[in-house]
Amino acid sequence: MRKLFLFILLAVVVAGYSKPSKKVAAVRNSVASVLVFKNGELLRSGLGVFVGADGSFFSSYSLFVDGDSAVAIDNRGVARPIQKVLGADETYDCVRLSVLPDKKIKVVEFSSLPAVKGDALHMVSYGVKKSGAIAEAAVEKVDTVSGSYLYYTLRLPANEKSVAAPLVNANGELVALLQPVAGGDTMRSHALAANYVKSLSIKAKDYSSGRFARIGIKKALPENEEEALSALLLQSFSSDSVAYKQMLDVFKEQFPQSHNGYLYTAEYNAVKLKKYPAAAAEWERALALATKADEVYYHKANTIYANKLYSDSAANTIFALDSALLYVNKALEIEQLPVYTRLKGHILYTKRDFAGAFDCYSALTGTNLSNAEIYVLAANCKEILGDSDAAILYQDSAIATFGRVPVAAMAPYILNRGLMKYRAGRYREAVLDYNVYANILNNRMNANFYYLREQAEYNGKMYRLALADIEVALRLDPDNILFLLEKGRVCYRVNLIDDALPVLEKAVKVAPDNADAYYLLARCQMLKGNKDAAKANLSNAAKYGHPDAAATLKELEK
Question: Structurally, what CATH architecture does the domain formed by 16-199 represent?
Answer without folding.
Answer: Beta Barrel (2.40)
